[in-house]
Amino acid sequence: MKPLFYCPSCDERHEPIPTCPDCETFLRYSAETDAVQRAIEGDFWAALPKHIRTISMGEANTPLVRLERTSEELGIDIYGKLESLNPTCSFKDRGSALSVSSVVDPGTDYEAVVVASTGNTATSVAAYAAHAGVPCAVLVPAATSTAKLSQAAAHGVRMFTVEGDFSECFSRAQTIADDHILNATAVYSANPYIACADRTVAFELLSDLSDIPDWVSVPVGAGPLLGGTYDGFTELADVGIADKTPSMLCVQARGCHPVVRGFDKGRAVSAWNEPITTSVGAIADPLRGYAADGERTRQTVVESDGDAIALEDDLVYEWTDRLAEWEGIYAEPASAASVAALAESEAVDTSESAVALVTGHGLKEDNLREPEFESKGTVETVRTALLN
Ligand SMILES: *Cc1c(COP(=O)(O)O)cnc(C)c1O
Ligand SMILES: [Zn+2]
Questions:
Q1: Three-state SS sequence of the chain
Q2: What is the Å distance from ligand 1's center to 368 Cα?
Q3: Which of 121-135, 138-152, 183-197 has the lowest mean pLDDT?
Q4: Which of 37, 176, 213, 318 is deepest in the core (most CB within 10 A)?
Q5: Is 228 touching ligand 1 by the criterion CB < 6 Å?
């Protein structure tokens, strides 16, 4: 076993940095078998780097819910993993807990965090930084959901807007980061903790299902959630706890889908230089300046015998409504895209089993749905509406 971060190409161990100093491959983390076993039993921190001091707010171990009506309509056995129920209402808390823990760890020189984000990472890192008493600066694109921004601002962090898109914010954060300031942005090339923490999704799924699903559907920006989750599954197979790995389904917004484009063309992912024509920002990362992150995700999808699919916003919003109406799950549109992708992908067969990662909560979105009032709520009209 390789307790430290290691390079899958050179098989060398390294300090926690994003890429191998010798070959630039993204470093990975894997835990001892007994630690993985403890993680499967519900100890989120067991499979994470041990030297790190723990800043935790009860992240992970999120519910897995069978999507009864969706399963029936699509003829696939579908479960939703409600990452929306993490402390700040998105899966980003898994990585933030570990990143911020590394900052307060006496073994590092870090004193503060900087984070680039379209919303959820900002909110998550801000909350964990506040909890840990760590100074935090948030860089967001000028056009970002105010619901998400006010959630981040509530934690008293320093907020900065950057003219431009997420890529612009990220490159600024990378330049700001040094030995004293950790870039806690949720992409592989910011720091190795994000994908490392996301491995735990796989351990929890095995624990809840007692089996490996045929598919795991993941909304993708740069893709550390998809890559980290798959790393967790390969780790389970490597230590002999599981006998197979799932196929990964990558979903992005059609208005900016560099990973899916690379997958479709069967070639390395390149940055998205066309206009970004989607409002589903969490799954529309142009990857400008860090296309290698998207390429790592594409390679994972290929290795897993998976599929990648780009969806129009209308379809994503349709499934956001369906998830709320059919299943009682209020998800943000980027998250509902994971279910939409299972409906749309031709690679997913009926009779197969699938998990959709419901990555973030609907309450984060501004005015997702205006209430429509039917008529005056008299005893008569309400009874008729309910019982006829
Ligand atoms: C960040 C985010 C994603 C994309 O995940 P990546 O690991 O960054 O690719 C998907 N959905 C939501 C709600 C997110 O916040
Ligand atoms: Zn290497």
A1: CCCCEECCCCCCEECCCCECCCCCCECEECCCHHHHHHHHCCCHHHHCCCCCCCCCCCCCCCCEEECHHHHHHHCCEEEEEEHHHCCCCECHHHHHHHHHHHHHCCCCCCCEEEEECCCHHHHHHHHHHHHHCCCEEEEEECCCCHHHHHHHHCCCCEEEEECCCHHHHHHHHHHHCCCCEEECCCCCCCCCHHHHHHCHHHHHHHHHHCCCCCEEEEECCCCHHHHHHHHHHHHHHHCCCCCCCCEEEEEEECCCCHHHHHHHHCCCCCCCCCCCCCCCHHHCCCCCCCHHHHHHHHHHHHHCCCEEEEECHHHHHHHHHHHHHHHCCCECHHHHHHHHHHHHCCCCCCCCEEEEEECEEHHHCCCCCCCCCCCCCCHHHHHHHHHC
A2: 18
A3: 138-152
A4: 213
A5: no
Probe residue for ligand 1, chosen from 216, 218, 283, 368 as the CB with the greatest number of ligand atoms within 8 Å: 283
Per residue in 132-141, pLDDT tens? Answer: 999 999 998 8
Q: pLDDT, tens digit, for every residue of 214-240?
A: 999 999 999 999 999 999 999 999 999
Ligand 1 midpoint to CA 91 (Å): 8
